[in-house]
Amino acid sequence: AFFVDPAQVNRVEIAPAGTAPLVLARTRVGWTRKLGDGPAIPVADETVWRWLGELGAVRATRVQVAKPIEARATVRVYDARGTQVVDLYVRGATTWLRRRGEPVVLEVPEAARRFFRADERDFLDLAIFAFSAVELVELAATDATGASVRVQRGEVADEFVVNEPAGRAADNEAIQHLRDALANLRALHWERSRVFMRRRSLVFSVDADPTSAEPRPSRHELEIGQALPTGECLARQKEPAGYVFVLEAKDCAALLVDVLR
Asked: What pLDDT score does 167 carry?
């Protein structure tokens, strides 16, 4: 349905009927997304490339003569060769795409509809954190009852000192397990905000990266929510507001581990 070379695309417009369009634009420093009149927000290149690759993989299951029916949405893809304009048509469970100027419609799987939704979730970065585990300096964990634990890295990177509560010892192995999960934490997918039952809040700091042109913020926050029936769990940060993400079961377990002996 689409002829897409992700390396050549420089702009995409996703315009559902009656709602604000979502625009993806390639800039000198990478991709941005812009919903309606909102600000342009950076998007990870790999996120856009993955989306474009999946868009280009959509295949028709049947070709039919076009019938007069109102388009539900339009996607425009801009590259060096020009502009592709494709309209989405839906009737019941049947989905068609039509390239502007062609007399036929292409019946495609229902899953192809997702490429025509102006939903920022599709372009939120799945990489939540990315740092070297040994850079973790301090960690505070607060559970749903308000009980808090605060540990700090000792003289050796893999040993920690308990600052709160007094008189307790750190479980270094458990903290290393939690630290490793945080260091390269990735979401399975994003969802719009829903009922969120916080089980633990984590506030932690990492060493600043002296080689980075844009030093990473040293302080981070994360909330771990309820388990899902599949064993995965919900999590969220203050930004982007209005969204939660789903974590793998193994990451959920690591982030909820008891860090005290």
From this structure: 87
